[in-house]
Amino acid sequence: MVGWLARPLTAGQTRCMTDSSRFVVTVSRVIPAQPQQLFDLVADPRRHPDIDGGGTVRRVQPGGPDRLSLGASFGMQMHLAADYKVLNTVVEFVEPLVIAWRHFNGHIWRYRFTPVNGRTEVVEEWDARQAKARRSLLLLGFPRRNRAAMTASLANLEVLATQQQSQ
Predict the structure, then answer these.
(1) Helices 142-166 & 35-42, crossing angle to 10 degrees?
(2) How many whole angstroms separate alpha carbon 131 and alpha carbon 43?
């Protein structure tokens, strides 16, 4: 297992890991784009429905920022069995390396961007260690569900970046 973790990813490969706490899921993918381009896509909340691989993010709520920044709050209209709204606050912002926002339940969605030989390794992380209802998240299968959705999200991010480059 250690050898697998030590091998670098090549473009288009995805790696998934679950933290030993069971409350952190990490997925990574090498994307043929620069960190700033990818960071800009994720920092635009209007692009989140296009990036979302789980099909739950419907659209950004009006009145939020066009570009995220540290401390910015933004709402999303969501759907998972029923429609609902969620308010997030950006808690980490180091351009173009990391951006993270905290969900109202306390869990964090984090993206890290690391340059790798002219490409970027993008790591998406769902961190529910500080979530208010974290046991419920486990019982409802969110670590497994999020792993699959995050894998698809990173593939979507690659498609968006590739389309943007060809324009």
Answers:
(1) 120
(2) 23
Q: pLDDT by residue (tens digit) across 34-53?
A: 999 999 999 999 999 999 99
| Token pair of 36 as six digits | 């700033």
At 135, is the secondary structure helix, strand, or coil?
A: helix
Question: In this structure, what DSSP letter does residue 55 have?
Answer: S
pTM: 0.85
Domains of the chain: 2-166 (3.30.530.20)
Q: Dig out the tokens for 53 from the structure.
A: 């691989």
Q: What are the tokens at 103? A: 């969900």
For residue 127, give both structure tokens: 């961190």
Q: Report which of 132, 164, 165, 140 is spatially closest to residue 56, judged by C-alpha positions.
A: 140
